[in-house]
Amino acid sequence: MSIGIERKRLEQLKKELNFHNYRYHVLDSPVISDAEYDRLLVELKTIEADHPEWITPDSPSQRAGAAVSDKFNKLAHPHPILSLANAFNTDDIRSWVERISKLDERVLNAEFVVEPKIDGLTVVLHYEDGVFVRGATRGDGEIGEDITANLRTIRTLPLRIPVEENGPIPPHRLVVRGEAFIYLKDFQELNQRLIEAGEKTYQNPRNTAAGSLRQLDSTLTAKRPLALLTYDIVEADGPIPRKQWDLLNYLKAMSFPVSDQVEFCPNLEAVIKACEKRKETRDLLSFEVDGAVIKINDLELAASLGFVGKDPRGAMAFKFPAREVTTVLNDIGVAVGRTGVLTPYAILEPVEIGGVIVKQATLHNFDFIAEKDIRIGDRVLLKRAGDVIPYVMGPVIDARKGGEVCYKPPSVCPTCHEPVEHFNDEVAWYCVNAACPAQLVRNIEHFVSRIAMDIAGCGIKIVEQLIEAGLVKDPSDLYGLKKEDLLNLEGFAEKKADNLLEAIAASKRQPLNRLITAIGIHGVGEVMAADLAKKYPDLEALSKAGQAELMTIEGVGPNIAEAIVDWFSVEGNRQLIRKFKQYGVWPVSDISTSKPAGPQPLDGLTFVVTGTLPTFTRDGAREYIQKFGGKVSESVSKKTSYLVLGENPGSKLDKARELGVPVLDEGGLRRLAGEKA
Ligand code: IVH
Asked: Domain count of the chain?
């Protein structure tokens, strides 16, 4: 390459890398793969190694991390938060040790510690007299962002280091470095919950952890299952262990979470073995790793070796091969989830990725396809992380040939062909046809559940049997079941059939609010159903209500009002209502007696219940509060009078604290309602 071209390439690389750095660290939305980024960085460093005179302070090779955004206050690190040089194979590890042993021959007999390279975000945690006082992101390595409030939400982060008998006394000032991340299982559960709520799912645990840590509202962070593992002490004003292995145990003894996947290696050969084994077994870990970190155990020896740029010579990252490939997107399929959410997925030209043949991958939601401009026929970048289902990161725009076709989300459900619905503030498209076969099991399950029609003994297995046998095509069919139908099913004898029929018949006496809950209108839970039943005497009256009228009911906003009107406009649902009437499932609420008799000490007060109460069920607590004139709401707001707190409360408690909403336990609630202590 001529000098001129090389110089031009360098400038281009700097520009590109700075842009990708910004996308990754500030926007949490990378547009190229990590492997691609690493390749560009290696190319840049190679040119710079040949022409050190070209290295400028703004070169991406000169910084440890990202630009600091102005969303948060800045927090200077007590020492630079360094990064690590990469080794991509065992030869690289050997030549690293060879190189540094030339600087200090003690390295030849050195011991090492090998740790998982957790694919998360560096966090820097400041403690004063054992109390967590501040915490920051890495930022540019010198200055991070103050994310103290968000870090406090991580349950394994010690807010105070407990001082145990025979345990270490924490130094007056202590700064610990660790990695915040999300366990794979928690990530999958989080996405499952989001799918059910019709919300956007997250791409991968790392970006989710990044986005969560950099939330401006820490009550949102608290809802994300962030985890922490620590591995380094950045600063301490007292004596600390001089060996990495002892330091990890010291951190553990102070109650910091430390990975149990750390390994003591007496020599280089043990290091090589450990790294190779880790590469093979990375899928067995409960969190994502992108490599292993090799550290010289003797921390003083390590420190005396100094740095190359921002990378200490005494440690090295052994990077695992990226599990990213490209392949052709042959088509886009749509799955209907049990809640009716339509989820697009990629139908791919089969491709091997990390030893697994992949033919399908998630495309998250329709917005994602539009945002990334993914077209059918595109070459797409695929990533597989841990044992998580592979996902499409985006199209390879440069590979376009011109014949790629833009994708339009379906306007009808691919299973039942009824029109699909979109609720305003959600990204998901739904099939709202209660009789859609794809959702039937879930609908019936909800219909018979304890909070709805409460049909005892009708578990999911029976629901599935009834549907499979063609006996139940919508919830009203339960009321047409005959004993001989049931006796034909596997596992049904006289007694079981009688019990089930009895429970079904008994459910006809359930009040209107339960039937409204049972039919499962999007966004209409128990509390709202009770409010609707106070205003409308039966389902027919409710079906005639217009959006504006519905919105006069407290708690019913435009989205829910629209969902109710839409639900009753679907022909399948109208027919369902007619069938309920024919079967005598027709509760009528006495709207004149909607105010219960008796003293009303809770009149004018609004309660939110969270956690498990000692003697009340959730339903029971609600009924109790309403009986004494109080209102129950689902979420804490400024209007909440009290939060009723049970065991294992969720984020509602944090919200209540933030808004200064007073908290009561069950006893307090009973006393307020006038019960004697
Ligand atoms: S040690 C000088 N140990 O990997 C100390 N880093 O590029 C350098 N990481 O930014 C860090 N697990 O965010 C270390 N067990 C571990 C790690 C780890 C993950 C991250 C860390 C760092 C990056 C290195």
From this structure: 5
Nearest CA to ligand 1 atom 8: 83
pLDDT above 70 (res 8)? yes
Give the Å distance between the CA of 189 and the centre of ligand 1.
27
Residue 317 CA to ligand 1 centre (angstroms): 8
Mutate which of 84, 305, 310 for ligand 1? The one with the most ligand atoms within 8 Å of its CB, which is 84
pLDDT, residue 336, reads 86
Q: Which ligand 1 atom is at minimum distance from the Cα of 311?
A: 2
Report pLDDT for 302: 97
Q: Quick check: pTM over 0.85?
A: no
The best mutation among 63, 179, 213, 275 to test binding of ligand 1, ranked by most ligand atoms within 8 Å of the C-beta, falls on 179
Query: Using alpha carbons only, how large is the chain's radius of gyration in Å?
Result: 30
Range ranked top by mean pLDDT from 66-80, 124-138, 591-605? 124-138
- Residue 63: pLDDT band by 50, 70, 90 thresholds? low
Claim to verify: residue 192 and residue 234 sit in the same structural domain: yes
User: Pocket residues for ligand 1 (CB within 6 Å)?
Assistant: 82-84, 115, 117-118, 122, 179, 231-232, 293, 312, 315, 317
Catalytic residues: 117
- Burial class from Cβ neighbours inside 10 Å (0-12, 13-18, 19+) for residue 598 reads exposed
Going from the Cα of 296 to the center of ligand 1, the distance in angstroms, rounded, reads 14
Residue at 428 is within a domain: no
Q: Are residues 519 and 468 in the same domain?
A: yes
**What is the SS3 assignment for 454?**
coil
Please indicate, yes or no, if residue 524 is contained in any of the structural domains: yes
* The pLDDT value given to residue 387: 61
* 612 lies in the same domain as 478: no
- Percent of the chain at pLDDT > 70 equals 95
Centroid of ligand 1 to alpha carbon of 293 (angstroms): 7
User: Containing domain of residue 195, as a range?
Assistant: 76-319
In this structure, the answer to whether residues 194 and 154 fall within a common structural domain is yes
> Could you tell me if 347 and 303 lie in one domain?
no
Residue 407 lies in a domain: no
Cα–Cα distance, 318 to 290 (Å, whole number): 9
Q: Which of 64, 97, 115 is the last residue of a domain?
A: 64
Tell me, yes or no, whether 315 and 331 share the same domain: no
| pLDDT score recorded for residue 593 | 45
Per-residue pLDDT tens digits for 351-388: 988 778 899 998 988 989 998 999 999 999 998 876 66
Distances (CA, A) of 380 to 13, 386, 514: 23, 20, 48
For 209-219, letters b (16+ CB in 10 Å) and e give: bbbbbbbeebb
Compute the distance between CA of residue 244 and CA of residue 231 in angstroms, rounded to an integer.
Answer: 9
In total, the chain counts a number of residues equal to: 677
